[in-house]
Amino acid sequence: MNFAFVAGNLALDFVATIASRDTIAEEKLSTPADLAEWLVLSGAVSESPEISADEFERAITFRETIYAALRDHTAKRAVEAAAISAINTAAADPTPVPVLSGGRVTTYGSATAAIALIARAAQLALTDPRLRFCAGAECTRPFIDASRGGTRRWCGMSGCGDRAKAAAYRRRVSARS
Questions:
Q1: Which single residue of 12, 72, 119, 138 could bond 77 by disulfide (Cβ 3.0 to 4.6 Å)?
Q2: Rounded to an integer, what distance in angstroms lies between the CA atom of residue 77 and that of residue 162?
Q3: Whose CA is closest to 56, among 89, 87, 34?
Q4: Beta bridge partners of 104
Q5: Angstrom distance (rounded) from CA 51 to CA 53
Q6: Residue 66: in which H helix or E strand, if any?
Q7: How far is C-alpha 150 from the chain's CA centre?
Q8: CA-to-CA distance for 33 and 49, rounded, in angstroms?
Q9: Beta strand 26-27 with 18-19: parallel, antiparallel or unpaired?
Q10: DSSP state for residue 134 in the 8-state scheme
């Protein structure tokens, strides 16, 4: 599976595991194995945890809860109390445990522990004034705008930013013709 980690926050990258939600809604986490792989690639854990079908469904439901909360927050709407409660409850669980050995840190934890880490990242995102959603035509990826001027418009320059700049260039060239 092709995952991208460009948001600057674990929870934001997690909700972006559905690409282009408003159009094609490409699901990138179709199985518990996909989620386990994502957790390792994201750095939440170093080794794939065992994920039951029930844990997988809870994780996907939680992802959608986070997404709705982010949308409400960036639209200046009150985030639903149930979403805040779900995020806080998940964040209260123990997170993966880092272990220093042989000159490197390995992080061990269950799917529940990794979700707790994601929940804590969601808490941070929901309090960060730099939280944005990509201005790409079909993109629905949230990100933290860490640019110096606070003017970042796209989730990443490779992809959405490149497409927007290419489209602007084509419009300028066709306007001259």
A1: 72
A2: 31
A3: 34
A4: 101
A5: 7
A6: helix 53-74
A7: 20
A8: 9
A9: antiparallel
A10: -
Instruction: List, in order, residues 6 or more apart from 159 with CB less than 8 Å away.
Output: 4, 136, 139
Q: pLDDT tens, 19-52?
A: 888 788 899 999 999 999 999 999 999 999 999 9
- Which pair of tokens denotes residue 172? 């300028």
CA–CA separation, 159 vs 163, rounded Å?
Answer: 6
Amino acid making up residue 110 = S
pLDDT at 162: 66
CA–CA dist 69, 66 (Å, integer): 5
pTM of the full predicted structure? Answer: 0.87
- Residue of 3, 14, 22 whose CA lies nearest to 136: 22
- Name the residue among 81, 63, 86, 58 with its Cα closest to residue 140: 63
Q: Which residue has the tokens 């804590």?
A: 120
Token pair in block for residue 161: 């930013």
**Nearest-angstrom CA–CA distance, 176 and 69:** 44
Q: Which residue has the tokens 């707790």?
A: 116
Using alpha carbons only, what angle is made at residue 85 by residues 126 and 94, rounded to the nearest 5 degrees? 85
CA angle 131–136–142, rounded 5-degree value: 25
- Provide DSSP, 119-172: HHHHHHHTT-TTEEE--SSS---EEE---TTS---SS-IIIIIHHHHHHHHHHH
d(CA 87, CA 72): 14
